[in-house]
Design a protein that fits this description.
- The protein is an alpha+beta fold.
- The longest helix is centred in the C-terminal third of the chain and has 56 residues.
- The chain folds into 4 domains: 165 residues, Thiol:disulfide interchange protein DsbD, N-terminal domain (Immunoglobulin-like, Sandwich); 88 residues, Sandwich (Immunoglobulin-like); 261 residues, no CATH class; 116 residues, 3-Layer(aba) Sandwich (Glutaredoxin).
- It has 19 helices and 23 strands.
Length: 660
Amino acid sequence: MRLSRLLMLLFLCIAAPAAARNMDGVLVAETMHPRAGQEVAVALVLTPHPGWHGYWSNPGEAGFPPQFKWTLPADTLVAGPDFPVPHVLSVAGLANYVFEGEHALLFRLKVPRSLASGRAIPLKLSAHYLVCSAEVCVPEAAEFALTLTAGDGTDRDPRFDAWRARLPAPLAAEAHFSHEQPLIRFAIPYPANAALTDPRIYPIGRKAIIDSSPQAVTRVGDTLVVSLSAAPNFSQASIAGVLAIGGGRGLSFTAVPGPVPAVPPPAPRADARATIIALLGAILGGLILNIMPCVFPILSLKALSLAKSGADERAARREALAYAAGAILVLTALGGLVIALKVGWAFQLQDPRVVLILFALMVALTLNLLGVFELPVLGGGTHPAGGFATGALAAFVATPCTGPFMGAALGAALILPPAAALAVFAGLGFGLALPFLAIGFIPALRRKLPRPGQWMVTLRRVLAVPMALTALWLGWVFSRQTGSTGLALMLGVVAVVTVALFFGGRRQHVGRAGIAIAAAIAVVGTIAAAGLVRPKARNAISATADSPATGEKFSEARLAQLVAAKKPVFVYFTADWCLTCKVNEKAAIDREETQAAFKKAGVTTLVGDWTDGDATIGAFLRAHGRAGVPLYLYYAPGEANARELPQILTPETLIRQTGS
């Protein structure tokens, strides 16, 4: 069928009359008086007659590109032409890359340095090109002449600005492709918020793609993924092309073998099912979060206050609803920021000032559990404001603990419509609040709570231990983000918070006022210290600085280089504030047997440190359907697509990837 179409077009070309000209042309210089040694632009402006079209440098599946021969003075050089962005025209089922209106082909003419002012520069151009209509194709030839005069180059044709704007701009970043017959998949960096209309790839050379094949274009974060049919027997080391982005504009690129993000499956009709699955996963993840060391003491604190107060049914339910509202509102708001700002989950912990404030709060809660002071809004009584504040606090400090439970649900939220995604984040808050809701709404559960007594004092002291460990962990994260100067600030915050609350608590215990002033001093001191925070330069990879594992800093260019060389690669993304990441590094990645297997198989480890946030890593995570860390990928030799590993690692999981 394709051969018959080509034969038909060939017949039309042979049978066409050649007397009448079907495309006009004129040769124009940007300046008629170029300086000696100057490079001057010369445009061949071609205008097909109505109903006719000319061809691009790659004509597509039929036709031939225009051909040019220059006659120039001695030592005068010319390069080009540079073509504007074409459009696709289907004729008899064949894809042609054409121009149907006026278009300018730009040449770059180099004037000799030795040319004296006033000397003539005669230019002659012989052009051979194909002009086609819907019914017939006509090969045409034309001669063009233009005489320039050496001068000062001050006169300038303003039309060249518009003609240059139609040329494809060079792509600033590297593009990748992967070939798995019958498809070629391109990954072209392109900002997620940039305008895009009718995108299409035009290959500059032939024998790369089937030009008439449909092109599926998907935006995956800051990357365009384009899938199309590969040409038979494709075997190219690189593919040059132009990406049309709308309005006659385009980007020129050269793609090399490298990673191409997986495209999330389209689910316009499966949104309800996907949302329900993600929502159930979020609720389960939120429920499990209650046993994490940064959340369990807060939940226990509220349960203790409810048991101590002996609240009636109505007050208990009001308290539970307020707690749930605080948890759901904070996690939904954080989810909204993740969606709107295209940042990662737990993004607030990438700011050391927020980490310092949370550290101070954990210190204060540790002192509260130790009985140094009482703060009614968080632990005493059943006032709704206390319930709301406690739920909000539990949600805020729980975000770095969501990794092992929420990876799939949060990844699904990234590809769901905004309303459905927000429902997933709200489900996480609901799951977090579910145990306290059950205590508040089920009298039988409240009756099973032990009666108040001395045991509550002992339990509070026990709960102070995980809260203190959480504070120490946040302090460690803060010191990693800020260095020795930050460590001094942190010790100052500990001193201010502890001294203020200690003396405020002493006055409180004897029935005197002063705890509110003490709390205000602690808050003001912490905020003032946060204002002095200066993050340190992170030249080393913090995730591996204290471990025996050897790893290189992650970059997409390095990953592409290793994949193209068919070397095995293990890539992992981590952060100092990610508990799951730290556990996996100590328990699996940095183990001696894992590193021995990696060394034996020649595995290169690339580490992406997301502690302080990194736009490149954030885009890479989103392209792989993840809202945050950890993410573990393994590229086997010769495989362009990664194997995604579980979020809970074991040495056996990693060793198995190497085939050992």
